[in-house]
Amino acid sequence: MSSAAPTAPDAAPDQAVRLADQVNRRTRAVRLLAAVRRHRADLLVALLWVVLAGWLTHGLWPDPGGRTLALNPEDQALYEWFLAVDARALLGDFSLLTDRLNAPDGVNLMANTTVIALGIVCAPITLLLGAPVTFALLAAANLAGTALAWYLLFHRTMRTRRLAAALGGGLCGFGPGMVSQTNSHLHMTAQWLVPVIVWLVVRLLRASDPGRTPAGSTRALPSGPDRRRMISSAVGLAAAVTAQVFIGEEVLFLAAVTLLVMAISYAVADRDLARRALPGFAGGLAIAAGLALMVLGYPLWFQFAGPQGVADGMFSPSYFSADLSSWWAISPLSIAGSDQASRLTTGPAEYNTFLGWPLLLVTAACAIWTGRRRLVFTCVVAGLVMGALSLGPEVVLGGIRTAVPGPYALLAGLPVVDGALPMRFGLALLPIVATLLVLAVDRALRSTGRARRLVPLAVAAALLPIFPTPLPTAARPEVPEFITGGHWKQCVRPGGVLVPVPLPTPKEPWPMRWAVAANAGFGMPEGFFIGPYGRGGTAAMGTFKQPTSALLADVARRGDLPAIGDEQRRQAARDADFWGASCVALADDAPHADSLRATLEQLYGPANRIADAWTWRV
């Protein structure tokens, strides 16, 4: 035997390490399998939501870059641009005042619904696969995530039966308002943090109650507030609120108003609890608010008073009010809906109040049958208040203004409040109605009489007419190879300003897709955004057109060749200098491309052909 051969003592340490690794891997696998078995029912519910969300958005999946949501393609182009700009945070190129649109002034990202947190989290997907893929993923994930979060709140926090919780979670995540808002309003459908906020508020309230039931006891004893849980709840609430601000402030506002109404209602229903818990609860909320403001103070100042910031809402509360008759109508995006109902709202992305008369009747019956529970009373009051606020400053019935003032008239003009659309208060009814249905179904499932079957069947029958249908999609033009092939870098340096012809507008933001395809690698003038360009510096959509931009837009619309003289050429040079532009580009598929090219050659001289675009250095 060779003297170089390893002896048993030499080999034992390595072998022991390998055996330990194998044991550890097996232990982890066993634990994972045990966790899957333990939570398999919850995982199946989550899988159901994912499949349903994927089915509703399946029209985007064959080609996210070449497909668009047919009912709101303009906002989809805007949100894809938001996601492309947000993703630049991963490259170290991000600011709350972006210079990638509205050159030279830029755009205040906090004053726009830019879903910053989602964009940054999904930045790797955006940079690798493109913003359209990220948009499609978020459109589906928001629906499934919201449904799952509410399901867990109903099942784990409220301790309701799984079937009841699943019905409630499904309504919260896939109700008519949520499906409607999925038409390109990512900031409104990302509601999966709202149940977390509700849970933390409830946890804080319970910890603040000195008469709570201590561990190991079967009845409430005056044991004092649980300060450790109060602090942890306050810290968690501050974190959740902060994250939601960078996802969607309007959702946070609606949740806060709803919780305020519910808190007041619950205090009226249970005055003993209010007296016991109010000091600690108020203190915990103060801690949460203070912690949140430490992070949010500067961004909120930047939103309202910073560069390009706006301090008011730009939408008319009277126009964006819910029609009273829309409450018992069924959404056109539901299986029992009709296109005729669309006249009761402002557009297909705002079917917020279309719950349908079957669901309203069953919900009322469930509220009565469930009994005089404090939570039922609180939900009924909150539902009535939020539903009334959705009617706006003047009640509209069947498209006719009744001259009857709505409760919203009391809030109109208040700071922050006027930035929310009245009809979106109706979105708060989904979790409120869901809670009432969950309580009723759970009570029925725990009983032994006929209600055990009748109540779940009645709830299912009421939900069936509003079951959602897939969102309509359509093909959209390809982005020019001049952009997708990276040829734009021959015309403008990264970070510079490229002028697409015609320039993007709120009604026709399609050139912003050029920037999306280039991961916002360059800036452009004008565009689709909210900025201080209204009368007196108030909020407005888009900005003023420069003379050259207006001239080119007119050519693109009519195809007529304008008279170009020295004054127009001097103005074109001044406008290019104002924008800080390096290059003007005209794609082959532009409207009236020949007329636009002839006009541009008179303004800027001979064109240079790059890939499938004509370019002019300016």
TrEMBL record:
<keyword id="KW-0472">Membrane</keyword>
<keyword id="KW-0812">Transmembrane</keyword>
<feature type="transmembrane region" description="Helical">
    <location>
        <begin position="281"/>
        <end position="301"/>
    </location>
</feature>
<feature type="transmembrane region" description="Helical">
    <location>
        <begin position="453"/>
        <end position="471"/>
    </location>
</feature>
<feature type="transmembrane region" description="Helical">
    <location>
        <begin position="376"/>
        <end position="400"/>
    </location>
</feature>
<protein>
    <recommendedName>
        <fullName>Glycosyl transferase</fullName>
    </recommendedName>
</protein>
<feature type="transmembrane region" description="Helical">
    <location>
        <begin position="351"/>
        <end position="369"/>
    </location>
</feature>
<feature type="transmembrane region" description="Helical">
    <location>
        <begin position="420"/>
        <end position="441"/>
    </location>
</feature>
<feature type="transmembrane region" description="Helical">
    <location>
        <begin position="253"/>
        <end position="269"/>
    </location>
</feature>
<keyword id="KW-1133">Transmembrane helix</keyword>
<feature type="transmembrane region" description="Helical">
    <location>
        <begin position="230"/>
        <end position="247"/>
    </location>
</feature>
<feature type="transmembrane region" description="Helical">
    <location>
        <begin position="135"/>
        <end position="154"/>
    </location>
</feature>
<feature type="transmembrane region" description="Helical">
    <location>
        <begin position="109"/>
        <end position="129"/>
    </location>
</feature>
